[in-house]
Amino acid sequence: MRRNGGGAQMRIIEAAPSEQPELPTFDVSVEIDGNVVMQQFVWPERTRQWWDMWASSPLSDEFTETDWSELMDTALIHAKFWTGNTSVANELRLRVAKFGATPEDRARLKIQFAAADEAEERTEKRRAAKKPKGDDPRLRLAQ
């Protein structure tokens, strides 16, 4: 017999949010004049901006250390993309989707910004305020 809603129940655990770490400093091997040398990796400015954007996003308010770790790995893929390696585009898109980067991603994750509800409420109030009232002569023209 099949039951609707069967399956494992969601397990709820306590987790403390953590602060966003700095992008790390590390060396990479590069070839210069036929010689392989170690050189400090330079984060593209666009990736630094992207990292800062995540810090200020309400989506990251509850990120734990493991979330930041995964996003840091994603930052490296982002850096590769912005330095011309477009072959990583699919992996980058898959990873940022897990964090709710786009409206479609947030809908799939069942995340909605409260500001959207508030904006809709303000729009409805403005529309209601603009509706003609009682003895408005425009109402007679519409008849």
Automatic annotation (TrEMBL):
Protein name (Swiss-Prot/TrEMBL): Bacteriophage Gp15 protein
Organism: Leifsonia williamsii
Region listing for Disordered, in residue ranges: 116-143
InterPro entries in the cross-refs: Terminase_7 (IPR057972)
Pfam families per UniProt: Terminase_7
Positions with biased composition (Basic and acidic residues): 122-143
